[in-house]
Structures are given as C-alpha cells and as structure tokens.
Sequence to fold (693 residues):
Amino acid sequence: MSNGYTGRILRVDLKSKTIKKEPLNMKNAEGFVGARGLGTKYFCDEVDPKVDPMSPENKLIFMTGPLTGTCATSSGRYNAVAKSPLTGTIGAANSGGHFGPELKYAGYDGIIFENASDEPVYLYISDDVVELRDASHLWGKDVYETTDLLNQECGENFRIACISAAAENGNLFAGILNDKHRAAGRGGMGTVMGTKKLKAVAVKGTGSITVARPDAFFKECMDARDTLAAHPVTGAGLSAYGTMILVNIVNAVGGLPVNNGSAGSLFETADQISGEELAAKHLLKNKGCFGCSIGCGRVAEIKSGAFKSRGEGPEYEAGWSFGADCGVDDLGAVCKANFLCNQYGIDPITMGVTIACAMELFEKGYLPEEDIGFPLRFGDAEAMVRACEMTCKCEGFGKVMGLGSYRMAEKYGHPELSMSVKKQEMPAYDGRAIQGIGLEYATSNRGGCHVRGYMISPEVLGIPMKLDPLVTEGKPATLKLFQDLTALCDSTGICLFTTFGIGLKEIAGMYREAVGSDESDEEILLKGERIWNLEKQFNIAAGVEKDTLPPRLLRETLPTGPAKGKVNELYTLLKEYYAARGWNEEGIPTEEKLTELSLN
Amino acid sequence: MKVKFFAYIRDKEYAGCKETITQDCEDLRQLGEQLSRQYGERFRKLYFSPDGTDFGEEIIVLVNGRRAEFLDGLDTRLTKEDTVLLFPVVAGG
Fold:
C-alpha cells in the first residue's frame, strides 16, 4: 500500500498453530491511526472486557503505526496491547528500538496472538515465511540469553522481542523486551505473553514502506527534524544527560517522593543519583533508537565494587524508584537494580516502588523479617538490590513482590501503603507538590503512569507553557489536551519525547502526508480523543475501579519543601476534568460525546 | 545567599562549579548581573533575554524551589537565607 501502512496483519492461533495473513482493517486504521489506538480497537472488538487477563482468551496484539519505520523522526515505536494482569485495565505498552520497523519491512502492520500454546514456541518471521517454532530450549532463559540464542539460530540481522523467566512464572509486571534493552514495559504485557507460552518473536524484513505523498512527507519530516535539532531539550539536553537530568529539578520543586512517599519529596542527597553524576562517572556512550535524532539512551557501567555491572539506562523513573523512593543514594546500586530489570524483563518502576512499599511495611512492623529473609530498611542499598534480584528470579519473597505493591500490601493488611493507582505503581513525581500530575495518575487509562499526559512538562519544565505546579487552575483542560495528543502521538508510531520539541502541527503534518489525508489538525487530534474514550469505555465495561489516588496523596500533607502543607486537590480537579471531557459527574462518557467521536 | 548550578551550567564555559555564595543582591536581576560579571558574556546570554528585561528562554530559575515566573520574575526579592537554583531547560521522563 502507499499510505504508510503495509496493509496486512498476521493472526496467529497459538493453540491450533494456524497462521493467517489478513488485510488490515483500513476503516479502523483511519479512525484509530495505528499502534496504541488501532491495537486497542482490534482488542476491544474481539475480546470480552471481563476476560481473565491470565487466561488463553486474553489476546496479545503487537501493532505499529503509519509512521513506524519511515523517515519520520524517532519512528521506531510499536505497542503491545492486551488486558493487563496487573491492573485489569486495557494495557498498551510502547517500545522503541528497531523491532517495530523490522516488522513493517517484513510486510506486516501488526500481529494478533490468540489462545495459548501447550508448549513454548516462538514466532519466526522472514518476509513471507512465518512459522511457529519450538522454544523449549529457550524457556527459562533471560532476555539477553534468549536474544543471543535466537540471533544465532535465525540470523544476526533478526530483531528479537522476547520475555524472560519472570514472565513465565507469574510476575505480574513483566514486560516485552526488544533489541535486548528496549521495553514495552508497563502493565504486564510480557506476563500475558508468558501465559501463552510465547517466548519470542524474531523478525527480519527486506521490504520497504511507501507513503501517499512522498515529497510533501519528506519535507514535513525534515522540517520536524530541524525543529527538534534547534530545540534545547531535543537538540542537545536529552542527548547530553539522558532522562536522569530530571532528578535535581524535580527534587528542587519538592516533587521527588522519598521512602515510598512517607518522608515527603525532598531527597537530601539527590545529586548523588542525578543525570549529572551518571554522565560524569558512569556513562560509556549514548544510544538512539531507529531513526532517532534525539538519542536519549544511555550505556553505563559500574566499573568496580559490589554493584559492578554494565547495561543500558537507568532512565529517570528507575533512577528514582531504586534511588530516592527506597532512600538509596548509591548510584551503583541503582544502576545494578535497573540492569537486572532489563536482563529479567520486568518493569523497574513497579519493581522499585514495590521494594519501597516492602521497606515501609517492614519498618512499621507489618511485614516480618522471616517472610523476607533479611532486614529490608530504607537506605539499605545492598538489601534493595537483593530484593530486586530475588523478584527477577522469582525466588522466595520475590514471588510476593512479583505481584506488585498493591497485592503485597493487601496481603499484609495495609493496601493503603501501596503507592499505586488501579494497582499500577505511580512514577517519580509527587502529586501533592505537582497538582496536575496527580490528576494524570488518577485518570490514566492504564493505572498509575506518567506518559499518558505528561503534566511535568508544563508544571515543572515550562514546556510548552509554564503552569504553577501548586495550583489546580487550568490543569484539567491542559491534561485533556495532553492526553489526546499523547494518544495520537503513540498511535502514529513516533516517540513521545519528540513532543518536547514539536506539537500537533508537526505530528499531524507528517501523518497527513504519509496516509494521504486532507483532514485538519483538529480533526486529526480528535482521533486521539477517540482513542482515549475507547480505552475508557473498555475499562468501564471491565469494571475497573474509579479514578482516585492513594490516601497518602489525599490526606498526608507534605512535611517540607516548596509544597509544604499540600495534599492533592483531586476532587476539585476531577470535577473540572470530567466536564472538560464531556463526561458525566461519575466520569462516564455521555452519549453525546460517544456520538461525536463515532464510538456508539 | 547560596546559588546552585545544574547540568551544563556547571561546565567551565558557564559557572565552572556546582555552587557559590553571593552577597548584596537584592533581587534576581542584581543576582544575574553579578553572576554575569563573574562568569562572562555566555552566562549573561543564558540568564537574560536579549533585551535584558526577562530571563533567557533556556534557563529555569528557582528560588527556594519556586519558579521565579510564579514569584516576581527578575524583580523577585532575595534575602541571605534564600537558595537560588539555576537549571538549563531540561526534560525527560
């Protein structure tokens, strides 16, 4: 096809071992763009929202977008979509690297996996040759071993997306890792893959992607690249320091949760786990994903000591979860824990926050030492890494931590100490010090998450406008816009980080010329709103709990810092947010809104 | 008062240090002037807008953790107990 899509998807029945090549539903592609949106549309059309996420009836969908693998900047993205075993919500996890483009070069926009295999298998794709192959020799292997073995078996130029033993053994927040280090990380998409006995997808393609209006598309792409190159963040900042550069500024505004949020959000020794420290002492080189002009990825090494290790990252969220949130200021320990999560394919945000929760349970006397096997106190770097490793390997108390903080805290009688929303752990910003991000966590369609409408951008970084983090005014309408634009961006197949430098005009411009649309920017943004509402409808039908925050953020005032005395003003924010969305006071989309979005 | 620098502002082309102590600055405008005299023209171009009436577009100025734009901008009054933090525009997530 000549519109950014390949026009075909694979449908793989893992039970009967049948593989079908079927045409892409272009009507749905037009309405829901691709990747996150289109994957979710297929999922919602085919799966009962009440499905048990761990059952064979849950489907797993890999989906790229119309810009994936093109010359659009940072276009290495694909989404994995399934019902999340961690949250029970729609799950859509986004990953970069090179896997998504390779799938399109092989001739497929996406893959729908149905049912479950009785024995471990992997999917081999080399252009038109598509086969399910035995993976019993890979079962139990970690991400690095699996990737290396499949590259030996299939060829060095194959791109591999796989799971590790954690996903095979009931860890509820295991991700899918592609190109060894890039993760569809949140919500347990790897866990779903494990229930299907699907170890990996290995893909190699020799085809190309054509677009509707090549000259105009190329110009839009180059203009966007120029804009990104000229922007201080996407041109130089992210490349120089990576995402960990946020540690000091978020701490400075009093928004870096410490000790599971129990000790406020000012970490005295934050500079020791900062991007500056990582760049000065441990950074080996930068690494970019497919077609990326930003290059935020890090390759880092701890050269000596107890935490000697090498790997990619850490990103800011993991730097915080294993750092300030566990009271740990040893960057070596933080890196080691992050590298373990990559190797064993689990989400480092949920992992770090779950360890922090266990630390609080232990220190308050709710979690006995004999259950853990050792004292697990805030600030103990060695214990933090040990807890991480035992969870990665599903050993001992690691099996309990592998259920995430909510289920663990509930088991010990104190679910209120889980810093999660809809059972997914909140990332590295305190919703008491930064009001809009609290609203974002509460309303995210996949539970506690920062990349569904990144309010830190206006509230802390001043991009693209400056909003006071301590006030509620203006936040709901801004968040709605950010959520809709993010849904659109995620669905095109380009990286969300581009939106630090470009906006709707550029994204809509590239999309329009790729697919051959004459829609206005506003009509294209409406697709983002449609995707958001579709996700919300699924969650309502699935019986997901209401939008709220942990009691700590609503009742415990911050003890120090610029936001001293603050809680999150959620109920004020929610009322205005639901109105901005055209939903009723219960947070349910109205018939008028669904009609406007062609969703009923 | 204490002034702290972050990211590339710590490099020798700008402040060349992590922090410094300054005296006799009544507001953020005076602080910017003093630091610009100390660190040179490159620092001035970062701190001030081209016409000198506002902050530069690529700097974030916090006073005790509050962004200067939500206080009184360049006219924000300072005391010797205050801590001023200077960041270049950064992002991540």
Q: What stands out?
A: The CA atoms of residues 152 and 347 of chain A lie 27 Å apart. Residues 521-542 of chain A form the longest helix (22 residues). Chain A is about 40% helix and 15% strand. Chain A touches chain B at residues 232-234, 237-238, 240-246, 248-249, 252-254, 271, 275-276, 296, 315-317, 450-451, 454, 456-457, 461-463, 466, 468, 470, 497, 500, 561-562 (CB under 8 Å).
